[in-house]
Amino acid sequence: MLKLNALKWWQTYKIAWSKQTTYRLNFVLQIIGPTLIFFFIKYNLWSAIFKSNQEIIINGYNFKQMISYHVWALIVSLIAQGHSAINLAEEIRMGKISTYLIYPFNFWEFHTASFLAFQSLQFFVSAVTISLFYSFGILQDLSLNYLIMGYCFSLFVSIFWFSLQYLTGILGFWLEETWVLRIILMIASAFLSGAILPLEFFPPWFVNILNWTPFPYLSFYPIKIFTGQSIDLIAAYLNIGLWTTLIIVANHLIWKKGIKLYTAAGM
To answer: Is 58 helix (H, G, I), strand (E, B) or coil?
Structure first.
């Protein structure tokens, strides 16, 4: 049974991988798109802010440090926050999950295997992105040790993000559209995680409150790990692990409640 179940996971993984890489142009854009967007938006923005003097310090960052920070924010977003549950909510709304209910493979297992395939692709895309920025001279003094630590923590964070996206998806049992929730979640997480501005720009009392939430661990602290700055790794893992556990439990309870109400109305 264990071998058979592993085969199901593997086959689902391969199918999801093939879907992600079927269209070559789309795949190429996934690789070069993040780098191009960074240069067109963030690099030009901070270049304008530091135009008068690139050595000036703003809340502990000069121009090079700020650019490096946002490069790593991009890398972390690729690894830890790339997955979206848009298809999951649609499958519930359109009644497509009826097919999954007769499969010898649980609904959550199917989506988790698909998530693992997506993460494998994102791992490759992020590695290429790091190589591009390193070749441009933006990322300097890369440390293999910090890269490994940063990747490990970011991948751990990606489990939390997948669980949270899964939660918004299965709310499709009660909501006709869940895209509003996803947009609110993305905006809130981008702002509160330090992806837009480093948390040093926030009031200390507000950062102290944020540290009890999972938000700073989505971007700010992974960036600190990649850049070799000291943080309490044990506390970081415990925080994300606790929030992930709570969301997984909530997902289980919501699924049990929602499937009882499911009528396949969209079929």
So the answer is: strand
- Sign of the CA dihedral running 17, 183, 81, 103: negative
| Nearest to 264, CA basis, from 97, 100, 126, 123 | 97
- Displacement of CA 129 from its chain's centroid (Å): 16
Residue 163 near residue 247, CB atoms below 8 Å: yes
Domain map of the chain by residue range?
Answer: 2-261
Per-residue pLDDT of the chain (267 residues; tens, 9 = 90+): 677 778 877 888 888 778 777 766 666 666 677 777 777 788 888 888 888 777 888 888 888 889 889 899 989 988 998 777 667 777 777 777 777 777 777 778 888 888 888 888 888 888 888 888 888 888 877 888 999 999 999 999 999 999 999 998 888 888 777 778 888 888 899 899 998 889 999 999 999 999 999 999 999 999 999 998 888 899 999 999 999 999 999 999 998 888 887 776 655
Which of 41-53 are b and which e, b meaning 16 or more Cβ less than 10 Å from the residue's Cβ? Answer: ebeeebeeebeee
3-state secondary structure of 76: helix
